[in-house]
Write a structure and sequence with these properties.
Number of strands: 13
Order of helices and strands: EHEHEHEEHEHHEEEEEEE
Largest sheet: 6 strands, mixed
Low-confidence stretches: none
Protein name: Phosphodiesterase
Distance between the termini: 29 Å
Number of helices: 6
Helix content: 10-25%
GO molecular function: hydrolase activity; metal ion binding
Family: Belongs to the cyclic nucleotide phosphodiesterase class-III family.
Structural class: alpha/beta
Mean pLDDT: 96
Keywords: Hydrolase, Iron, Metal-binding
Pfam family, one: Metallophos
Amino acid sequence: MTIIAHISDTHFDGGGRALARARQTMAFLRGCNLDVILVTGDLADHGTVEEYDEVKAELVADIPVLMLPGNHDDRSAYRKILLDGDGAAPINQLKRAGGLLFALCDSTIPGEDEGLLAPETLDWLEGVLGAAQEPVFVALHHHPIRLNNPLLDGIRLRNPEDLAAVLQASSTPRAVFCGHAHAAAAGTFAGLPLIAAPGIFSTTRLPWTTTDELAWANTFDRDDVPGVVFHVVEGGELTSHFRSIGN
C-alpha cells in the first residue's frame, strides 16, 4: 500500500500568512504515515527567486516531496532554485516514489493563467507512458475538465482533448491529479479518476453556496483552513480521502 498526500497552491509570497499556512500543512503531514507528498503547482505567487527559497526551505520532509509548476510559477527561477538548472522550456519530470511512477507535466503558458500542454510535453508524456512497465499517475496544474466554477473554468487547460488522446492510447495511466482550482473536486477524465487538490493558500467559493455574484475579488475564501487529499494505492486500486487541516 502506498499513501500519497496531495496538496496544491501554496503561493509563497514572502509574507507571513502564506508561510504560516504552508508550515501548518507540512507539520501536519510530517506527523502522518505517508510515502509521498505531491504538490501540484503554484508553489510561488510571483515566481521570484526569494519565493522559491521559501519553497525549498519549507516543502521538505523525510519522504519524497514531488512538485510541478503552476501559472504563478516562473520556469527560470523554479529551475534555478529547485532544480539547480536553467532554461525556460517546460518542466516535465518522471519520478519514482513510494514504489509508484509519477509523470509530472508542465501545463503552464508563461505569462498567462490558462493552461496548455505543449507539443513537446505531450510527446514526452506519450513516450513515458509507452515505455512504462507499471501504472503511471499523471499530474499537472490545470484542470482538464469543467469544475462548475465559471471563473476557474475560464482558465482551465486549453487542450484537454490532446491529453485525453495520449492517455487513452496507453494502458499504463491510472489517475490524473491536478491543482489550480483551490478546491477539492473529483471527476473522471479520459476514463480515469481525476482529482483536484484543495488550496493551501485559500479556497474558492462555489457559486451555489452563496447569493453573492462571484468575481475574482471575492471568490477566494482566505479564512477557510487548508486541505489535503490522501490517495491510497493498493493492489492497483485508488481510493482518495479528503481532509481539512485544522488550526
